[in-house]
Amino acid sequence: MTPPELPAGAEAHFRALESLYAAAPVNGLFESRLTIVEAGRARIDFTLDERHFHAAGAVHGTAYFKMLDDAAFYAANSLVTDRFLLTTAFNLFFTRPLGPGPVVAEGRWVSGQRRVFVAEARIIDASGEEAARGTGTFMRSRIGLASLPGYAA
Prior knowledge:
This protein is 20% helix and 42% strand. By secondary structure, the chain is an alpha+beta fold. It has a six-stranded antiparallel β-sheet. The longest helix is centred in the middle third of the chain and has 17 residues, at 61-77. Keywords: Hydrolase. This is PaaI family thioesterase. Residues 57-131 form the Thioesterase domain.
């Protein structure tokens, strides 16, 4: 499916979403950086360390969920210029454990153009191997993007 056409100023919207991501308090817990690659595609570079580990010495599932949800969410919200989207469902699949170091979460819009959006994401480790993948459903909220601290178009 082809992403819907965005109005002029899409690049400003993408940069404002990147700013919104950076301003979210939860992102103070992760060394990460969002890049909206193009309409319907997002990339987040993360650096993981022992703070993200479970008792057995690998990255805890909460970190996987955060990375996958964020990448899919921002891929979908890159197509919506007026409203903040909300995650309504998310399925994830773990394929290999992650240790410390850099990883990339890549998000891609799959379908939906009005009220409900579907997007998927995957996590790639430093060796280029996929460590997890997930699919989320997102819907428009009543929250205007322009009203959110950090969204600076």
